[in-house]
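Quick illustration for those who missed Monday's session on complexes.
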Amino acid sequence: MALSKLENLYRQVILDHSSHPHNHGTLENSSQHIEMNNPTCGDVIFLELQKKDGIIKDIAFSGHGCSISTASASMMTEIVKGKTVEEAMALAEDFSLLVQDKDVTNEEELGEAEMLRGVSKFPARIKCATLSWKALQKAIVESDSGAAKAGFMKHDE
Ligand code: ZN
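Prediction with zinc ion bound:
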C-alpha cells in the first residue's frame, strides 16, 4: 500500500474513534476515577476504572478534548480493558515511546494505537495523545496508595 493511502487509512481510523469514541461515558461501579488536563491544548479527561483482583474489569472516559486526545482515549480503553494493571502500565510506557517514534517492546499489543505514531512529527500534539494514558497510570498508582477513591482528583498533565 502506498504511504499516502496508509496515512489516509490511519486518519480515517483516528477520525472514527474521535467521532464515535469507545467506552465513552461513566461507570456505575468505578473503583478509581481521575481528572487530568492538558493545558497546552485544553483537553480534559475524566477517567474511571473498575479494578478487581489486579485486572481492569471496566473502564470509561468522558470530558472534552481534541480529536487526537479523544481518539487516543478511545483506543487506550479498548486496549487495556481486561488487562492486568502491570500489563496496562507496561503498555502506557510503550505508548509514550511510540509517540516519540522510538522502538516499542510490545508494538502489536498496542493495536490501533500504533496509528498514533505519526504524532511524533507534531510535538505539540504528543501531550494530546498521551493524556489518557497518563491518567490511566495515575489512576493505577493512586489506587495502590488508596488515594484516588475520595473523589475526582485534579491533575495538570
Ligand atoms: Zn489536544
